[in-house]
Each structure stands twice: as structure tokens, then as C-alpha cells.
Design a protein that fits this description.
Blueprint lengths: L6 H7 L2 H17 L4 E5 L2 E5 L3 E7 L3 E5 L2 H6 L8 E3 L2 E5 L6 H17 L2
Antiparallel strand pairs: 1-2, 2-3, 3-4, 4-6, 5-6
């Protein structure tokens, strides 16, 4: 597994045709959670608030979005068009990002972290 020292380095190492989507996802997270700290965790871009808030990573045919099991369960119905697993969502590369849904998931995740603090 390659290691990266920043989210920018991670995105720059990805194929050029996917960088725009990755930068768009990063911007959505930054806009909605401006106080989140950017880092690399588990080898992929990670945003932390009071702990891991959300991760994302490029796969062959999708962007993996990892908000955790509670968020995936809470948005199960809205995520019906996407392949999911316990804490992951697969966003197909050939589709536009579901910005509103991502923003809703971020609000949910921030609320969950601030409630437990």
C-alpha cells in the first residue's frame, strides 16, 4: 500500500480523470465541516472532528465513502441506489456525486460526534 502525507498528495497520485470528483468530494466535506482536520488514515483521505468523521478512497469503479456503520444504517433508504456494506458506500465513478445526500450524512455524523462529547 502506498503512503501519502496529505489528501492533496493522495488525489494527485490518482488518475487524472478521477481527480475532479475527488476534489469535489473533498470540497463538500470542507464546506460542511470546516473545522474538520484533514489527514490520511488507513492509507486514504480522512477528516477528523472528535475522532474519525469520514474517509474516502478511489477504487477501480467507484469512490468508497466511509462514514461508519451508524450513518449507513440511518440513511439506508436514501442509499438504496448505491452498493453499501456495514460502514461503506460505493459511489460509481460514472455518476455525479449525490451532494445533498453527502451533506445530510455529514450533518448526521457531526451531530453524532458532538452529542457523544
Amino acid at each position: 500500500m502506498k503512503t501519502y502525507d496529505s489528501i492533496s498528495a493522495y488525489i494527485e497520485a490518482c488518475p487524472a480523470e478521477h481527480r475532479t470528483l475527488l476534489e469535489q468530494l473533498r470540497a463538500i466535506i470542507q464546506k460542511n465541516v470546516p473545522t474538520a482536520q484533514e489527514t490520511i488514515s488507513y492509507g486514504i483521505p480522512t477528516f477528523k472532528l472528535r475522532g474519525n468523521l469520514i474517509h474516502f478512497g478511489l477504487a477501480k469503479k467507484h469512490i468508497g465513502l466511509y462514514p461508519g456503520a451508524a450513518a449507513v444504517e440511518a440513511f439506508k433508504e436514501a442509499l438504496g441506489a448505491y452498493k453499501t456494506s456495514k460502514g461503506a458506500i460505493q459511489l460509481p465513478l460514472e455518476e455525479e456525486l449525490p451532494i445533498g445526500l453527502i451533506e445530510d450524512i455529514l450533518r448526521f455524523s457531526v451531530a453524532a460526534q458532538t452529542k457523544s462529547a
